[in-house]
Write a structure and sequence with these properties.
Length: about 450
């Protein structure tokens, strides 16, 4: 065997391993993204703190996008529910959490409840709004359902933006508020802060024994590293654990009898009804669960991730970002959802933020005109640096949408099923692959949970 044949065989084995193992596929993709952004940090001459910070950003945005995409995949990929009101359900979750946990003396005032209560309350509120939306809306299909959900999302955003709800009083004299257009700036500190600081709301309160040990380790190994960078990296890793737990939950839901009914509804709801399934009840439960997860994603991203809540953070384009990530990964695949979220977060969200600095440093572009005429004029003299500087500094954020459009056109033409949408779904609760005898399959079928029992 020649060396070329040996290498080809090894590559084939590695590709087959990635196709069989979801964990290996996700870990390989994340390793590639970490190496990419470490290379970017090296090009930009970042110190150790800067490199750790960029790794924290990759982890954070990958985790939050993966979490929201998983929730949408439950709606669209499993049940075929065309929900484009994701931003609204995220807003319900994070605003509810903020109002429950903000201090009563804040502006706007809150209830001052523990953070755990706020997280659970945010999820329940998003699920409840999902129920109210689902009862009338799920009788509609396809484009009509999409129109209703995007309308609900805008109603939610405009309600939180309204001055009428900036501060209001509940029965019993309890004061609450959304802050109107100013939002809520008194969101509780990131829960990870409690690991490092005696008072989680203030880094000046002194470190805990665990915090002192971790900060001391980083200082001894890497030199002086800002404590905020370590806290942010830790929060990203916590979010990665949350994504794993949600992934496991949705995988079990998808492989359960309940999940198989959802897939039947997605393929042909009339057939599912003919088999005696109450499809409306299944869709309502699924819609509520997905909305609760979207509310959780809003809490973990816009609540604890930014430290403040503003209604403008939940504009409709956020919903379309999530749909793009689902299309990239492949609807109906939880692993595809994680990969789609990672690809979008890193290549279409984070990378364009670093491209101007990379190009300016690589090609020594210093010109930065403020208008198009000043950028194009010097071309007559053979100077293109002003035009390049104008594109990089003034128009690159807009070009991000061009990149997204080109990517979507390419996927629709060459891979409409997404990265992992080609995977065959398991329709049975038993192993029907070759190598299992008919007697084994028959014996397994007798104890399988699928055989005619209630799919609840």
């Amino acid at each position: 065997m020649s060396s070329d044949q040996f290498q080809t065989g090894r590559l084939t084995q590695f590709r087959e391993l990635l196709e069989r193992s979801d964990a290996a596929l996700v870990l390989t993709a994340m390793a590639a993204f970490y190496l990419l952004f470490l290379g970017i940090g090296a090009i930009l001459n970042y110190d150790v703190a800067g490199l750790i910070s960029i790794l924290g950003q990759v982890t954070f945005f990958t985790a939050v996008y993966a979490l929201i995409v998983l929730a949408l995949n439950l709606h669209w990929g499993y049940a075929g529910l065309f929900n484009i009101g994701i931003a609204g359900f995220m807003a319900v979750g994070v605003y509810t959490m903020a109002m429950l946990t903000a201090p009563p003396t804040g502006s706007p005032p809150g209830l001052g409840l523990p953070v755990a209560v706020g997280i659970v309350g945010g999820m329940l509120a998003a699920a409840l709004v999902g129920l109210v939306t689902a009862l009338p809306a799920l009788r509609l299909r396809a484009d009509y359902l999409a129109i209703v959900t995007v309308a609900i999302s805008e109603i939610i955003r405009l309600t939180y933006n309204s001055p009428a709800f900036s501060t209001f009083t509940l029965p019993g004299g309890i004061a609450l508020g959304t802050g109107g257009a100013s939002g809520i700036g008194t969101v509780p500190s990131n829960p990870v802060q409690a690991i490092y600081y005696v008072d989680p709301s203030s880094a000046a309160s002194g470190t805990t024994p665990i915090g002192a040990a971790i900060f001391g380790f980083f200082e001894a190994v890497f030199g002086v590293v800002r404590s905020a960078v370590i806290v942010d990296l830790t929060y990203g890793l916590v979010l990665a654990v949350v994504v794993f737990l949600v992934y496991t939950l949705l995988a079990r839901v998808g492989n359960s009898p309940f999940g198989r009914v959802l897939k039947a509804i997605r393929e042909d709801e009339v057939v599912a009804k003919s088999l005696g399934k109450d499809t409306n009840r299944f869709k309502i439960k699924t819609f509520m669960l997905g909305c609760a997860l979207m509310g959780l994603a809003g809490v973990l991203w816009q609540g604890f991730g930014t430290g403040a809540v503003y209604p403008q953070a939940f504009r409709p384009e956020l919903t379309f970002y999530i749909f793009i990530a689902v299309i990239i990964g492949g609807a109906g695949s939880n692993t595809g959802s994680v990969l789609g979220g990672a690809v979008f977060a890193n290549l279409l969200f984070l990378l364009p933020q670093y491209l101007p600095n990379i190009i300016e440093q690589t090609f020594s572009i210093q010109a930065d005109p403020n208008n198009f005429i000043a950028a194009v004029g010097p071309i007559a003299a053979g100077e293109i640096a002003p035009l390049l500087g104008y594109i990089l500094n003034q128009r690159l954020p807009a070009l991000r949408f061009v990149f997204v459009g080109v990517l979507l056109v390419y996927l629709m033409q060459n891979r409409p099923e997404g990265l992992l949408g080609h995977r065959t779904e398991t329709a049975a609760a038993v192993n029907l692959s070759e190598g299992h005898t008919a007697a084994e399959q028959t014996g397994s079928d007798l104890t399988a949970p699928e055989g005619g029992v209630d799919d609840e």
